[in-house]
From TrEMBL:
UniProt record similarity statement: Belongs to the methyltransferase superfamily. TrmY family.
Predominant place of localization: cytoplasm
Gene it is expressed from: trmY
Subunit structure, as described in the record: Homodimer.
InterPro entries: Alpha/beta_knot_MTases (IPR029028), TrmY (IPR007158), tRNA_m1G_MTases_N (IPR029026)
Protein name from the UniProt record: tRNA (pseudouridine(54)-N(1))-methyltransferase
Native organism: Natrinema gari JCM 14663
Subcellular location: Cytoplasm
GO cellular component: cytoplasm
GO molecular function, a single term: tRNA methyltransferase activity
The organism's place on the tree of life at top rank: Archaea
Length: 200
């Protein structure tokens, strides 16, 4: 299982946002929707062994599970509609119990730290960062069942960076150029799909 944690610093925690203004009024939810799409969508299919955890303002986490996910299309608007539907059910999440607004989607009342704590036992926590160790020097075996952590258009806050310093097993960079989160997800998938670029 590959997992991606996406931090949305500015995205809404309430469903009262317009699907026609994802870049402005919804706190760059457009970019995060591209990342969700990149994590799951293949040509004519969905990656079933992937989960994405979208952390909204360190307050809520919306989890997408590819094994059950339905109605995810390769466009930002339909993905944002799934996020909005999830937020419409936020009040049904009580304590550690999630709301389940639709197949493959759960909403939890926990922020970044709680999400990382929950996922830390699933596999190595990998902080993707331009100052990290080169992924080709680590190899794919060390990243099996990895939990990859990315930020939105903002840098990680000092508090988030300190948490990652304490929790992350590795800090990795995927290449010589700075990448958007959706691009980084695509590169990470390709690296692991090809056993570190060894198998095609």
């Amino acid at each position: 299982m590959r997992q991606f944690v996406l931090i949305g610093h500015d995205i809404p925690t309430e469903p009262d946002f317009s699907l026609d203004d994802l870049a402005g009024g919804a706190g760059r939810l457009d970019a995060l929707c591209r990342s969700i799409t990149a994590a799951f969508v293949t040509s004519h299919g969905i990656r079933e062994t992937v989960r994405v955890h979208l952390v909204a303002q360190d307050e809520l986490t919306v989890t997408f599970d590819g094994s059950d996910l339905r109605r995810l299309n390769p466009d930002e608007r339909s993905t944002a509609a799934l996020v909005r539907t999830a937020l419409e059910h936020r009040d049904e999440a009580i304590g550690a119990l999630p709301a389940e607004p639709s197949p493959g989607i759960e909403v939890y009342r926990r922020g970044f730290e709680g999400t990382l704590e929950e996922l830390a036992a699933d596999g190595p926590v990998v902080h993707l960062h331009e100052d990290g160790e080169a992924v080709v020097d680590v190899g794919p075996d060390a990243l099996e069942d990895g939990v990859f952590v990315l930020s939105d258009h903002h840098d990680f806050t000092a508090e988030e960076a300190d948490l990652l310093e304490a929790v992350a097993d590795r800090r990795l960079r995927l290449g010589p150029e700075l990448l958007h989160a959706d691009q980084a997800i695509t590169v990470a998938h390709h690296f692991l799909d090809t056993d570190g670029y060894e198998r095609f």
